[in-house]
Amino acid sequence: MWFFARDPVRDFPFELIPEPPEGGPPGPWALHRGRKKATGSPVSIFVYDVKPGAEDQTQVAKAAFKRLKTLRHPNILAYIDGLETEKCLHVVTEAVTPLGIYLKARVEASGLKELEISWGLHQIVKALSFLVNDCSLIHNNVCMAAVFVDRAGEWKLGGLDYMYSAQGNGGGPPRKGIPELEQYDPPELADSSGTVVREKWSADMWRLGCLIWEVFNGPLPRAAALRNPGKIPKSLVPHYCELVGANPKVRPNPARFLQNCRAPGGFMSNRFVETNLFLEEIQIKEPAEKQKFFQELSKSLDTFPEDFCRHKVLPQLLTAFEFGNAGAVVLTPLFKVGKFLSAEEYQQKIIPVVVKMFSSTDRAMRIRLLQQMEQFIQYLDEPTVNTQIFPHVVHGFLDTNPAIREQTVKSMLLLAPKLNEANLNVELMKHFARLQAKDEQGPIRCNTTVCLGKIGSYLSASTRHRVLTSAFSRATKDPFAPSRVAGVLGFAATHNLYSMNDCAHKILPVLCGLTVDPEKSVRDQAFKAIRSFLSKLESVSEDPTQLEEVEKDVHAASSPGMGGAAASWAGWAVTGVSSLTSKLIRSHPTTAPTETNIPQRPTPEGHWETQDEDKDTAEDSSAADRWDDEDWGSLEQEAESVLAQQDEWSTGGQVSRASQVSNSDHKSSKCPESDWSSWEAEGSWEQGWQEPSSQEPPPEGTRLASEYNWGGPESSDKGDPFATLSARPSTQPRPDSWGEDNWEGLETESRQVKAELARKKREERRREMEAKRAERKVAKGPMKLGARKLD
Asked: What ranges does the record list as Basic and acidic residues composition bias (predicted)?
């Protein structure tokens, strides 16, 4: 019945990869790479071929097979499956690499760190302690060839071929018969008299000393070389000397050796070992301990090996979020570890967790995600952004916490390129209109304007025509001075999206009104923008053939390439404004502008003659100097404290908050001078349209605008020349009017004014007619019955 016979090797669920063996341990075993047939997951396969006349070696291999199958410990090579036939033995374990090959590859790649070695030796000693103290077994083969390393960099103890019982059951130690292994035997084994007093762990601790020597110095040439520690670290030398001492009685127990090395200042007393020990026991740790651990973990990840972060830290972080309710604290280390992953691994492991996090109602989680969106946005595809992320993110626009509203605005810079037509041109514009008109925080209104300028190139042509001019015009009427500056910069950054008619009839009238603004920073930017728009109009006037080229982007489809000007100004403009945000909100939370309570802009006199001017100027100038070093603002730096007081943002005395608006705007309006006025240094003008290189000299006796004292202190008898001119009412930005058809331009306002004048004239004419009729009745008296009306 031979046709019923089956080849057990062929039916084995694992297969060998056709590659040469990996240089396994000296002895009968050959180490091969393999994989599971069903899943393709990698494994290591130890193969022993039964040879006639080698019964002793066969018995040793079968004993090793049995030991590995029955021993289970995190620091001992993990057994997966096995096959025993008359011709061969196959032992399948987790995918590992021999320690010698691993160390050589690490040295050639990026250098081997003592942190890795300290944890690796800690694992081997812990495995020896388990065998000797818990199982009463002597390994009898501790050497470089018996240690293997898995993909996470964990050291595993293998080579169980010559293991025997410490209690004397089953006879003495088996004979090795391999010179490469016998050189690690301690000197007392050569004494056949048996008079030497020793402990059961003495021989294995001697071999551990040989392993330490080889890890730092390379292959051991002879036993006499152990007298010279060589490259062994100084903190480990005293403990190493105890291991290779001639007296076996004084060699320490593996558990005591670990305790000595873990003492303060010891070789195994470091952050890497502590992190690994915590991860091994994380399931039994208290929630408070886990929170503290994850908060401190991100600081140490840069010094940890990459493989350790990918294969050991990352699974623990994902498990902690999925089942441990770790919350927002896992985000920072999670994204830090994510840098080590390939794009495919990131999509499989990180993105599903991120998508799930966005649906969380935890405010700390949401603000951390928004803060760190830059680290994972490139891995998100457009359908995921539009269907699973954006619907949750937009809730941040309506949040009562200013920190979340501000961070949500900033996140739109990253999400806008991936948003579809409806989300970008309809949904997002509605939220931006409401924030710019109604938000109680001036810096958030300002950042909304800046963000709109940066994403303007992604909008459709019809949305750009309806939105941009009206939005930036509204910003120029904001009582918060940096918002007015942002409106001017928004016009200039999107200059290529306006027709010549819009520039002449809509934009320039608005900019000209800002030339008498009480804030010098606003006036400076307004003059620059006016000169540039005039230069553009003049160039087209001189050469009308340039009109088509100048207006090529006006009706073009949305394209990120058209946002070059925005990229040149927003990188510092947003930073300059947002660095004020936390200070303004922390000390002076402003109220939303209303028709009955409009925050008045500081007058020039109050702005220049305040007694605390020097103090405020010093504080604000120092803040201005730090604008380029900060990212949008520092509200997020105080997210935790703000979240704890979330109710205070939506409640509280409106009267006191209204009284603080003027003061906060007064202090913050001076700060942007140093950075907002650096437009030309940023190169935004040079990237767009150049100003005329030569200018005609003004008529004699004419004072240039630059000769006026726009912002400096003047004598007491001479006030600001614009003090009387700038007393225009602080107009309230129109309420949420960025709908489909409500983007009124400046011509709409002029039509409304004309209609109002016509109505007043009709009313006056009607009153005049009624007065004349009344006069005639009084003069003639009442009419008699039957009298004829002659007139």
From this structure: 664-673, 748-758, 765-778
Q: Report the run of H or E that residue 650 belongs to, with start and end.
A: helix 647-650
Q: What one-letter code names the amino acid at 647?
A: D
Using the Cα atoms of residue 393, residue 398, residue 400 and residue 404 in order, give the sign of their dihedral: positive
Residues of the chain with pLDDT under 50: 1-4, 561-747, 790-791
Rounded Cα gap, residues 206 and 128, in angstroms: 12
Distances (CA, A) of 462 to 211, 371, 458, 738, 740: 74, 32, 12, 13, 10
Answer for the pair 446, 551: CB distance below 8 angstroms, yes or no. no
Q: How many residues does the chain have?
A: 791
**194, two tokens:** 């048996």
Max Cα-Cα span within the chain: 162
Q: At what angle do helices 442-455 and 402-415 cross, to 10 degrees?
A: 10
List 137's β-bridge partners, or say none. Answer: 165
Structure tokens at 87: 């011709």
Q: What one-character DSSP code corresponds to residue 752?
A: H
Long-range CB contacts for residues 173-180, cutoff 8 Å, separation at least 24:
173/138, 173/140, 174/60, 174/63, 174/140, 175/56, 176/141, 177/56, 178/26, 178/27, 180/26, 180/145
Would you say 692 and 535 are in contact if contact means Cβ atoms under 8 Å apart?
yes
Structure token pair of residue 26:
């000296």
Q: How many Å apart are CA 297 and CA 318, to the nearest integer?
A: 14
48-64 confidence digits (pLDDT tens): 888 887 788 888 888 88
Distance CA 746, CA 749 (A): 5
Phi, psi of 45 (to 5 degrees): -125, 120
* C-alpha gyration radius of the chain: 40
Distance of alpha carbon 273 from alpha carbon 271, whole angstroms: 6
* Residue among 223, 736, 662 at smallest CA distance from 442: 662
* Tokens 């129109």, residue located: 734
For the residues of 115-165, what is the DSSP string, one character each? HHHHHHHHHHHHHHHIIIIIT-EE----SGGGEEEETTS-EEE--GGG-EE
Q: List pLDDT tens digits, range 712-753.
A: 444 434 444 444 444 444 444 444 444 433 444 444 555 677
Distances (CA, A) of 492 to 454, 478, 511, 523, 733: 11, 18, 11, 14, 21
Task: Report residue 652 CA to chain centroid gap.
Answer: 34
Phi-psi domain of 374 (left: phi exceeds 0; alpha: psi -120 through 50; beta: other)? alpha
In which residue are the tokens 């019964």 written?
55
Coil, strand or helix at 580 = coil
pLDDT tens string 38-94 = 898 999 999 988 888 778 888 888 888 998 999 999 999 999 999 988 888 999 999
CA distances from 645 to 348, 399, 574 (A): 37, 13, 26
76 DSSP 8-state letter: B
For residue 34, which phi and psi values (nearest 5 degrees)?
A: -150, 180
Interhelix angle 461-475/442-455, rounded to 10 degrees, is: 150
Give 49's DSSP letter: E
Torsion of CA 432, 433, 435, 437, to 10 degrees: 160
How far, in Å, CA of 467 to CA of 558, rounded?
14
3-state per-residue secondary structure call for 544-579: HHHHHHHCCCCCCCCCHHHHHHHHHHHHHHHHHHHC
Instruction: List 96's β-bridge partners, or say none.
Output: 150
Please say whether the beta carbons of 331 and 357 come within 8 A.
Answer: yes
Domains and CATH numbers, the chain: 14-97 (3.30.200.20), 98-272 (1.10.510.10), 436-555+572-585 (1.25.10.10)
In the block, residue with structure tokens 């649906």: 359
